[in-house]
Amino acid sequence: RNMSSAGPEGRKKMRECEGLIDSLVYYIQGAIADHEPNDKATENCVCILHNLSYQLEIELPESYAQSIYMQRRNISNNDKTPGCFGTRSRKVKEKQQDTPLPEEKSNPKGVESLWHSTLIRIYLSLIAKSTRNYTQEASLGALQNLTAGTGPMPFAVARTVVQKASGLPGIRAMLHVGHPAVRKTAVSLLRNLSRNPSLQNDIAREVLPDLVSILPECVPGSDVACETTASICYTLFNLTQSSSHNARLLLSAHGLPKVIAISMNDSNMFSKASKAASVLLYSLWSHTDLHSAYKK
User: Fold this and answer.
1) Residue 152's pLDDT is what?
2) Where are the alpha helices (DSSP H) in 194-263?
3) Which regions are flagged for Basic and acidic residues bias (predicted)?
4) Three-class SS of residue 81?
């Protein structure tokens, strides 16, 4: 577990170590099957996988990109951005929803397991069944890492979490736990998921009221809570930017007074949360059909 947090070279060596990732996954599967999701060894295994999934899209060798994705042609060199899952451009990013993804391998080995739906479902199972905060945070954090990029793979993972594995109820429950780091990681994961337009209505329907409910009445005093508040505002921005219906959901959940109060704090120390709230307010005002409701 300590070695897996030693930086890019350490992660690379551990990902390449034959049988290591498979063994970690095997152990966690056994712990879940034996109804023992709270033991220390399971926590260690999940924390290692969490660390090994960090910056995965950037750090994997190009050979994986060619075997995982179809070749992308006619992309200008000027538009290229680095990433292991194939050359991407702004145009490709815009069309990522329409890009057909290859079928998953039925029996993934090694590093391939890190983004496979089997492990995604394991993380969601641990989120639902474990009461150990570090295990919950590591499971959420692994999913956050896997959905952090802009390529087709993060989008596919997000779609698996939201639609194929029905993971939103478990993530929603983590918004209400007492541990600030677990709550912060759950919100960060939802922020990543909410960037995908095809998932936004599902996310808004399931968790938007919960996000509003955990928004503080004013800018919070601690750094972690302040970061969490900013992430909530940016998640709500993603969910409401293109949807008047979702903006009305925020209004119905009594979110507007909270967002206004957070935006009005001009202290430099809390500028991150205040700025995020201001960006959200600006976006909400773009829904002209809601102006009269806002004024009321």
Assistant:
1) 80
2) 200-214, 223-240, 244-252, 256-263
3) 94-107
4) strand
**DSSP state string for 103-150:** PPPSS--GGGGGGSHHHHHHHHHHHHH---HHHHHHHHHHHHHHTSSS
Report residue 203 as tokens: 């996310």
Residue 198 neighbours by CB distance under 10 Å: 12
Answer yes or no: are the C-beta atoms of 148 and 154 closer than 8 Å.
yes
Candidates 61, 70, 57; CA nearest to 154 is: 57
pLDDT tens digits, one per residue of 52-79: 999 988 887 666 655 555 433 333 333 4
Q: Confirm if 87 and 71 have CB atoms less than 8 A apart.
A: no
Residue 18's SS3 state is: coil
- Number of Cβ within 10 Å of residue 70's Cβ equals 12
Q: Report the distance separating Cα 185 and Cα 169, nearest Å.
A: 15
Q: Can you read off the two tokens belonging to residue 55?
A: 């910056």
Coil, helix or strand at residue 153: helix
Is a pLDDT exceeding 50 seen at residue 290?
Answer: yes
- Single out the residue of 187, 148, 137 nearest to residue 59, CA to CA: 148
Helix (H, G, I), strand (E, B) or coil at 88: strand
Q: For the chain, percent helix, then strand, then coil, each to nearest 5?
A: 70, 0, 30
Residue 5 identity: S
Kindly state the DSSP code that residue 155 receives in the 8-state scheme: H
